[in-house]
Design brief:
The protein is α+β, with helices and mostly antiparallel strands. The protein has helices spanning about 55-65, 95-110, 130-140, 150-170, and strands spanning about 20-30, 45-55, 65-70, 70-75, 85-95. Helix content is about 35%, strand content about 20%. β3 and β4 form a beta hairpin. It starts with about 20 loop residues before the first strand and ends with a helix.
Length: about 170
C-alpha cells in the first residue's frame, strides 16, 4: 500500500501580522445620559465610548452582552444598559496600526467620549470605570430614579452659585 505524499503547506499565521494591510474600523457609541433632565431625547444623549476594531460584530457583542473577549470572559460594559447606538466614524484599510491608533485618540478627544478611561484623562466630563460600575449597580437596583439625587445635587449647587453671583453683583455695583 503506497502512501500519497501531502504537499507542503505553510502554517497559517494566527491573526494579522503588523505589516499586513487590515481593514480597521473606528467607532463611537452614543448613549443616554443617566442624569438627563426630563428624558428629552435631544438633550439626553452624549458620546459614551469610542474605539477601534478589526472585527466589529465581535467587539460590539463584547461591549453590549459581555462573554468571551480578547482577554477572557468579561461582563458587559457598565454603559450597555443606556440604550447605546453604534456609529462608524472611519473604515480604513491601512498598512500600519499607528495611523488608526492616532485617529482613535483624535476621535475620542474631539468627541469627548465620557466612558473612555485610558485615552481620555483631560476630559472634565469623564466618568471613571469605578464610578460607572457604581452607577450601573444603582440603576439596576433602583432604576432611573437612582440618579435623581445626583441631579438634584448638581442643580442645588448650580442655583447656589447663581444666587451668589447675583448677590455679589448687587453688592459691588
Amino acid at each position: 500500500m503506497s502512501r500519497r505524499r501531502q504537499p507542503f503547506r505553510k502554517p497559517r499565521p494566527v491573526g494579522p501580522a503588523w505589516w499586513a494591510p487590515t481593514t480597521e474600523e473606528i467607532y463611537v457609541y452614543r448613549t443616554r445620559k443617566p442624569w438627563a433632565p426630563f428624558g428629552l431625547r435631544w438633550l439626553s444623549r452624549h458620546f459614551g465610548y469610542g474605539g477601534r476594531t478589526v472585527d466589529p460584530q465581535r467587539r460590539d457583542r463584547e461591549h453590549i452582552v459581555g462573554g468571551p473577549g480578547r482577554f477572557g470572559n468579561k461582563p458587559p460594559q457598565p454603559w450597555s444598559d443606556l440604550e447605546p447606538k453604534r456609529y462608524v466614524v472611519f473604515k480604513l484599510k491601512t498598512r500600519t496600526r499607528l495611523t488608526t491608533h492616532l485617529l482613535e485618540v483624535l476621535v475620542i478627544r474631539v468627541l469627548f467620549c465620557v466612558y473612555n478611561d485610558k485615552l481620555n484623562k483631560l476630559n472634565p466630563r469623564k466618568i471613571s470605570l469605578r464610578r460607572a460600575r457604581v452607577q450601573r449597580v444603582l440603576r439596576d437596583k433602583f432604576g432611573r430614579s437612582a440618579m435623581a439625587g445626583e441631579l438634584f445635587g448638581r442643580y442645588l449647587i448650580l442655583s447656589a452659585l447663581v444666587a451668589l453671583a447675583i448677590y455679589l453683583w448687587s453688592v459691588f455695583s
